[in-house]
Amino acid sequence: MEPVRIGLIGCGGIAQSAHLPAIARLPGLVRLVAAADVREEAARAAAAPFGADAYTDYRQILARPDVDMVILCTPEFAHREQTEAAAAAGKHILSEKPMAKTVAEADAMIEAARRAHIRLMVGHSRRFTGRYQEVRRAIDAGEIGEPRIVRENERRSRPPAGRESSYWTPKHWTGDPAVSVGAVLTNGIHEADLFRWFAGSEAVRVFAEHKTTRPGNLVPDFITFTVNFANGAVASGEVSNCLPPGYPSYHQLEIFGTRGAIRAKDHDQQSLVRFAEGGAGHPDSYRLLLHVQDAYVSELAQFVQSWRDDRPVPLPAEEAREALRLGLAADESARTGRPVDLTAGGGSR
Ligand SMILES: NC(=O)c1ccc[n+]([C@@H]2O[C@H](COP(=O)([O-])OP(=O)(O)OC[C@H]3O[C@@H](n4cnc5c(N)ncnc54)[C@H](O)[C@@H]3O)[C@@H](O)[C@H]2O)c1
Predict the structure, then answer these.
(1) In terms of Cα–Cα distance, which of 324, 84, 52 is closest to 184?
(2) Residue 277: what pLDDT?
(3) Residue to probe by mutation, ligand 1, list 9, 16, 38, most atoms within 8 Å of CB
(4) pLDDT at 282
């Protein structure tokens, strides 16, 4: 079979650090034929190593009959428009998380995919990590009984001096309140997705508090949230995404079940630490993506294989929609200071 021909839309951080390396590692299965970014140099840098074509308007990719699928690595505020356009052009879509900015947008994306008979998957990449697949397998095998408590913490450092226009700073879209709600969707959407997946149930109530811990930040860089599930499970998580440069980034998961417990953490994965005048030199949050590199290979391979085998996508878009609803409900709770009832439509703004 010929490799599936991919058009990459958005050639920034996650495209360069995760999706392009994943494409390169699956040569028999996929091939990059085009890349687009509003920043021409970013599109060229992505396309060149693959001998692919570079564009500044993603519609030029959609107009090509030799593109079978697109990967959306653009910010979430662009996902709805690009999904609707790609679906109308008959391209299958693997989109980065969060699915969209609102639940209404997510619904429009699902409807566009349904109407066009194309496959849409949102890459909640952590589900594809070996670590969390193993956690899910252990739960499915009944090793800890029924999950009752799920807890996950996430710590990220901010960019070092000299990269002030990088992630989570006011000069970057992730730090701009006009388009971003900050930590809750940039990172906490992963926790929202994992909570649902591990609890094996729908969220019914969420209470959250957020803070802007770094002077000058315009969006919250810290959130703590507690979620009640329909099956009685409780989940709680904390995301802190703007810690001092060099602070070791990590994820820490604990699940307590009726018969056992699971613990997973990666504090010790940073095998290289340098100490110098400027402080500790850990691989920072961008480099840390390397530890989940295999997840992006697995995510892409499973997505493509599911359509070749005519099976459902491994992570239905409706799941990403529910994670988004939970994330937005957490944001609403943090803003209003009140718990949000998801059974009464909370989070669906
Ligand atoms: N799965 C994960 O764990 C993970 C990790 C990081 C980022 N992400 C997600 O990936 C998406 C992109 O994040 P990033 O870190 O790469 O951001 P980024 O700012 O580094 O890159 C985004 C790129 O999109 C381009 N772009 C913006 N609007 C565009 C448009 N209309 N058409 C074409 N290109 C456009 C920008 O020029 C930029 O190059 C976000 O939704 C983010 O949440 C997911």
Answers:
(1) 324
(2) 54
(3) 38
(4) 54
Specify burial of residue 192 (Cβ count, 10 A radius: 0-12, 13-18, 19+).
Answer: buried
User: What's this model's pTM, rounded to 2 decimal places?
Assistant: 0.93
Cβ neighbourhood burial of 187 (10 Å; 0-12, 13-18, 19+): buried
* Under 8 Å between Cβ of 131 and 265: no
- Centre of ligand 1 to C-alpha 75, Å, is 4
Q: pLDDT, tens digit, for every residue of 271-302? A: 445 455 555 555 444 444 446 789 999 999 99
Phi and psi at residue 57, in whole multiples of 5°? -120, 120
- Rounded to the nearest angstrom, the distance between the alpha carbon of 141 and the centre of ligand 1 is 37
Q: Which amino acid, one-letter code, is at 285?
A: S
Q: Which of 8, 37, 152 to mutate to test the pocket of ligand 1 (most atoms within 8 A of CB)?
A: 37
Residue 291 is predicted with a pLDDT of 61
Ligand 1 mutation pick, 44, 59, 60, 74, max ligand atoms within 8 A of CB = 74
Domains of the chain: 4-123 (3.40.50.720), 127-288+325-342 (3.30.360.10)
Q: What is the pLDDT of residue 286?
A: 42
Report the separation in Å between the CA atom of 1 and the middle of ligand 1, taken as the mean of its atom positions: 31
**Contact at 8 Å (CB) between 43 and 55?**
yes
List all residues 6 or more positions away from 312 whose beta carbon is below 8 Å from its beta carbon: 306
* Cβ atoms of 179 and 86 closer than 8 Å: no
The length of the chain is 349
Ligand 1 pocket list (CB less than 6 A): 9-15, 36-39, 42, 58, 73-76, 78, 96-97, 123, 125, 173, 186
| Residue with CA at minimum distance from ligand 1 atom 3 | 125
Q: CA 25, CA 4: separation in Å to the nearest integer?
A: 14
Ligand 1, atom 19, residue with closest C-alpha: 12
- Lookup: tokens for 265: 């953490």
- Could you read off the pLDDT of 70-110 as tens digits, one per residue? 999 999 999 999 999 999 999 999 999 999 999 999 999 99
CA distance 320 to 281: 35
